Amino acid sequence: MTHAPVLKVENLQTRFKSVQRGKFVHAVDDVSIELYPGEIVGLVGESGCGKSTLGRTIVGLEKASSGRVLLDGVDLSGLSGAALRDSRRALQYVFQDPYSSLNDRQTVGEAIDEALVIAGTRSPEERDRRTKELLDQVGLASAVRDRHTRELSGGQRQRVAIARSLAVNPRVLICDEPVSALDLSIRAQVMNLFLRLQKDLGVACLFIAHDLALVRQAASRVYVMYLGKIVEHGPSQELYDHPGHPYSQMLLASAPEVDPRVEKLRKGPLMIGEVPSPTNPPSGCRFRTRCPLAVDDCAKAIPPSHGLSPGHSAACIFARDLHRGKRSALLQPEASVA
Q1: Which residues form the ABC transporter domain (predicted)?
Q2: Residue 315 pLDDT > 80
Q3: What is the pLDDT of residue 193?
């Protein structure tokens, strides 16, 4: 890509004090990502790997311990006053649970109007026009405007949440599993709506999810996160077809099959053990304690990121072999694990 990224995260770290005295939870550890105008980028990994914390740190809901978040090349940590408010409007967050992200005491109109007021739209007439426009964009009739958010279904609530996030004309949306809390019957509807709006408005989006099929459908590029670190990233099709990290391969192989006959023949779960504690992560490669390919060298140092193809890299000493398919057999269910 020749143009500059609209959002750039450099060596970001987010730590929290642990219940153990003197210990810290390393939720996000030295993460760097880029997001270009108008694109959707996926962020995938197991629950507890730090995906949501990364998203919340980017928009300022969590405080970074170190590193930088740059919006159009401007470091957000150095902003204050009006400049900081402008940056926060440019970065919006769509939360996973529409039942907790909206105020039950507000009507739909009040929820959207509040966002417009904060954005600086002072004219009641202009706010009224914009509210109607936003409701129409997300496929909700103007009649819902006077209903309380608690009266809406989950899908309707998430549409209101999307409308509210778009009210301030953001440059970037951080979407934290925006359809995972919805019934299966309406996930596709909300997802299709989101993809249409993203394309029409040209807003860049970091799409956080554990549903790999959903990310493959939506994202042009994907970052894979494990225990606070990015272990692989690359173009979506390339990464899904030729993953270069054992964790990525295991995530893909563990995804449920659509065909129940194929799913029934699955030999067993490929993911070994539990995610280690982020308070005391393993030395070297953090995935080594669950990896069937792990050797002594994996414990000695954090593996460097190896380039595999244009825009595709993975942080594993076996990355090039895995990318070429030479070691994939070791990651199959029937393989013995020492």
Answers
A1: 7-252
A2: yes
A3: 87
